[in-house]
Amino acid sequence: MIAAIQEYFADLARCTTAAWTYFWFRASDAKTLSILRIALACVALLYILGYTSDLTFWFAADGVMPVARVYEITGITDPEYGAAYWSLLYYFQDPTDLWILHAVTIVTLLALAAGFFSRVTAVMAFVLVLSYAQRSPIVLSGLIEPLLCPLMLYLCLGPCGAHYSIDAIWRRRAGKPAIGKTYAANIATRLTQVHLSMFFVMMALSKLGASYVWWNGAAMWNVLARPESPLVDFKFLRSSPLLVYAWTHAMVLFELAYPVAIWVRPLRPLMIAVSIPIWILYALASGNWLFALLMLVMNLAFFTPLEVKPKSEVVETNGKAEAAADRIPAHV
């Protein structure tokens, strides 16, 4: 009996270790990461462009939020609080300097989307986007920054310009071999997937624990009733409260189900399909279309393009025809 128990736990440890190693520490193709580079760079560009009309109004030395005021609000100068909100924009307060930095940020994000010196522009883009996000706490949307900034950081960890990029074109024309499977690409992609899943868990738990309106189904009506928010007028739903209740509960159930079901391969297409109307309706109701767009494009973190191999690359092993090892993506 004792020997059987010991063998069970030994097998459990071996299987757990093997699964953990396979999940995190195996070489994988960078196509998914390259797609994420394009998508995140475009969303970040839209985020930065949103500051254009009021750039000096907020961030200039004589603007609404001078650096000294930010220090006061965030508690940076309070030794007991110990806050740290570093931003490159602290050093650019003259209007001319602000516009130069803003132009550099836009060009950097365009270069990252195109895959131009992507290992360098990925780091630059992360620093610049983070600087905007932390420059003024009262300008933040509260939703997009906690997700966008870490995802931009993960792009820096892997070869995000290995595919669909100017870098890849130059490498091919120079006769250099393409970037194959790497451990860095797998780690960067896995961090993105796990972070997105945990973000869904956070959103669901915050809804269930913060207010009773998510339990009684009235939360979405609170969103719809704000006159400055909706992109579409949903006041006609006043005569159909059951639809509002169903909408509210559907949001919570979706956010609870997504971080679990997205890891189950047969359920993955279903969850991605369901997310499309969920986030489109949320954007129309709340007006927070940029966050909804980010949540939609982040479905790409669980997508790997299939590479069709020619028959000449099919090899025989033990009398059975097997495709080359990278024919089928091995994402869990």
UniProtKB/TrEMBL annotation:
GO terms for cellular component: endomembrane system. InterPro entries: HTTM-like, Sporulation_signal_mat. The keyword Transmembrane applies. It is found in: Endomembrane system. It comes from the Bacteria. Residues 25-307 form the HTTM-like domain. The keyword Cell cycle does not apply. It is a multi-pass membrane protein. Keywords: Membrane, Transmembrane, Transmembrane helix. The chain crosses the membrane at residues 35-61, 99-130, 196-215, 242-264, 276-302. PANTHER family: HTTM DOMAIN-CONTAINING PROTEIN, SPORULATION-DELAYING PROTEIN SDPB. This is HTTM-like domain-containing protein. It comes from Blastopirellula sediminis. The lineage of its organism: Bacteria, Pseudomonadati, Planctomycetota, Planctomycetia, Pirellulales.
